[in-house]
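Hey,
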Amino acid sequence: MKKIKTKNRIGLHPVMTLLILCFIVIIISGILSFFNVQATFNKISPTTGELQVTTEAVNSLFSLSGLKYIFTNTVANFANFAVLPHLIIVLLGFGVMEKSGFLKTVIILCTKKAKKTTVTFMVVLICMLASIIGDLSYIIFIPLSALLFLYGKRNPTIGVIASFAALSCGAGLNFLLTSVDSSLITTSLSYAHLLQPGYAISPYAFLYVNLLAIIVLSLLITNITENIIAKRVPKYSFAEEENVEDDLVFTKKKKRGLAFAIMAGIVYLLIFIYNIIPGLPFSGNLLDNSQVLYIDKLFSYNSFFSNGFVFIVTVFFVILGLAYGIGARTIKNNKEFVDALGSSLNGIGKVLLMIFASATFISIMKQSNIGNVVAGFLANMIANTTFSGLPLVLLIFISTIVATLVLPNSLSKWPILASSVITTLMSSGISPEFAHIIYRFGESVSLGLTPVFAYFVVYLAFLEKYSQNDKQFKLSKAIKYQCPYALASVMVFVVIITVWYLLNLPVGIGTGVAI
């Protein structure tokens, strides 16, 4: 019998998948708008502070006005897509650190005697804790993790997958109060005060449960990475390098370069830290002193620290790389320095194309208002449910997971869900602090599974950068890599929520499950 030859088919590139998703959303929005699909729910008025009936309807993009929006706003949406400038600017700093040899020297020095599992665990744990700086952690730690694995002679794709999993699954976890948590608490209290005026939430209200979740989830993500993902990803072929053994030798030039980098870095950090400490002479220049909580002084919209954080980090990276290059004599003149700045931007064309497709898809999804309508339906379901106790808690957890798939922005989703979640739980004797935990756990599960999340494109971009076979690079495969982590998160969070509820354990300092 003759052997039948099978063609090695090339799957859809993520750019094409995102563009197809754009057309699908346009058509669905037209159908849903035709049938007048809308959700009505209660929401607090920002002016009066009282509950008012709010209606969210699907906007049709399959119409003349919808097409006008797409054609007139696509360029502006791409230009204003925060991921684009942030990624390019941070890559300038990475270029200097990488080209000077600073990153390779530091990574090899720190990891040459460490076990693979230990390195992976440290990467995961640091990424889990990085939620304190918000979404910018995706731009900093995904490329850094890839290089850490690359210089450790491991597949950099594993580093990209593991870091994104830790960043997304840990987005709602931190032992310190983040700027997002502070904003969510403000919304929660506005609803809590309707039932219990004067109710207050401590900045350490979520300390115990989050610490446990971070530790357990870090161990699980490490285990999944080493035993599942590392075996699934395609093999990575390292380029043959001359003098590979020299990388392991800590020469005088490298020592001098590190000494220069450490001294320059310490000086920069001391100046920076002094300017985010309030109350000292000439200090606190990077803070928004109109805010009350320190976390809000750091990350409010008017804070110099918040607005300039990307550039602050980039300058730090440039200083480290340049100081090392001068000390190790790997950067000898200004031309080499400029070349190093731009080295990470080489071959960035496909990345820009991917960001354009992602920005277009997200703007179309946002304009369709489908996410708000879905969240509104879920809010109504929670408000009208007959569930109580643990079934009610788990219903809210599952509803948050579903809502996040189409509306990943935490600050956009919570005002819609909070009315039903806070009032329903408080009426059942469950504290707003525990409601906050349920909500943050739920959105952490599905955040890494949805391309509607703006920073999902950073994950895609670095998967492509280190992909050596374009036929295997697909959006569906990128999501598949994240599925084991999402499943592990569901199991961990359900167990924690159930145990805390049944035993009425303290959620944080001075707070518990019950009011």
